[in-house]
Amino acid sequence: MSAVPTVEAAAGRLPLSLDEVTPDWLTGALHDHFPGAVVTGVRRDREFFGTAASARLHLEYAPGGRPGPASVHIKGGFDDTWRKRVWMALQQEVHFYRDFADDVELNLSQVYFADLDDSPQGVLVMEDLAARGVSFGQNMLPVTADHVAGVLESVAGMHAAWWGSPRLAQMSGWEQPQRTFLKYLLRPNHWDVLVNWTNGDLLLEAVGTAENGIAALEKLWAWCDAQPRTLVHGDLHGGNIFYEPDGRPGFLDWQLCFGGTYSHDMAWIIITALTVEQRRAHERDLVATYRDALRGAGGPAPTASDMWVAYRRQTAHAIASYGSVPRDNGPEAVLEEAGLRAFSAAIDHDVLGVLGITRQGGSR
């Protein structure tokens, strides 16, 4: 290998595949946090390819230098197809950790390196959370209403702190990549796949047609944009939460954060983290828990009735963002459960009716 690399080793073109994450590149990437640590070997495991690709890296170091972490987690656009789909989200997450994370009072991963370039790419090198014994809230992992209440209480504190912040202007337009992608998910040929998949009948019952689904999203977004803004995580589903050994929640995956309305996050975690039966049993209490926490943190909480209607409106978002993702976006069982949770919530809360949309068509 080369002589001791400096930070310049990480300043050129970012790696576009996991195979390009070499010892030299990692030495440069870790330099700011671990100056003098020279990576001489890297071994990968726990590789995952979805909207972003990630892996755990086990590192070896040259003797005599400062030691770095035994393992790290790397995340970026390491799959060409997905990088071209979501490159803006990859880069927004880099901006979040560079520019905002220090002022977000939540339990977050420590980030050792965050950079982007015009390839386009965005890469993070973070602590290996598994090394400190956390558990990860996978979408199929059983959680309780108390777990979700803890998440809501934490995120309500963030919402209160950022409510109406002038810094949200720096996030202008950050909601657009998500919105563009959600409308794309309801395009005609993908709609046909969805209605012929498991839970397709529930999707038809919820909105009937792709056109109705898109109308619901557009009506939701118009309402959202007229509401007071705060910093929202943007993708607060159960798979983006981790839990410390004492049960304290932590927050992963800030690719879709933006300045928006509180109910985006509040509804999202309730609908996605709980089974249909759990949600039906606890959703009113959980919305009340969030409201109490927001008020307790100094946020100007809406009335209980307005907050409940806001929660119901957000089921339009769940239809697309949770129930309609590409069928190559995860294990089949996970996608099926996601559809069941999202579409059932939309049915339970009369998503078209609460948004004032007259149903058009929709029989199979």
CATH topology of the largest domain: Aminoglycoside 3'-phosphotransferase, Chain: A, domain 2
Shape: globular
- What structural class do helix, strand and pairing data support? alpha+beta
Relative strand content: 15-25%
Mean pLDDT: 92
Proper CATH architecture of the largest domain = Alpha-Beta Complex
| End-to-end distance | 62 Å
Tally of structural domains: 2
Major β-sheet profile: 5 strands, antiparallel
What does this structure look like?
A hairpin with a 3-residue loop joins β4 and β5. The protein has 364 residues and is α+β, with helices and mostly antiparallel strands. The chain has 13 helices and ten strands. Helices cover 43% and strands 15% of the residues. The N terminus is likely disordered. It folds into two domains: 123 residues, Phosphorylase Kinase, domain 1 (2-Layer Sandwich), CATH 3.30.200.20; 221 residues, Alpha-Beta Complex (Aminoglycoside 3'-phosphotransferase, Chain: A, domain 2).
List keywords for this structure.
15% strand; Aminoglycoside 3'-phosphotransferase, Chain: A, domain 2; 364 residues; 5-stranded antiparallel beta sheet; 3-stranded antiparallel beta sheet; alpha+beta; 13 helices; Phosphorylase Kinase, domain 1; globular
Summarize the structure.
By secondary structure, the protein is an alpha+beta fold. The protein has helices spanning about 25-30, 80-100, 145-160, 175-185, 190-195, 200-205, 210-225, 265-275, 275-295, 305-315, 315-320, 330-350, 350-355, and strands at about 40-50, 55-60, 70-75, 110-115, 120-125, 135, 230, 240-245, 250, 260. The protein folds into 2 domains: about 5-130, Phosphorylase Kinase, domain 1, CATH 3.30.200; about 135-355, Aminoglycoside 3'-phosphotransferase, Chain: A, domain 2 (Alpha-Beta Complex).
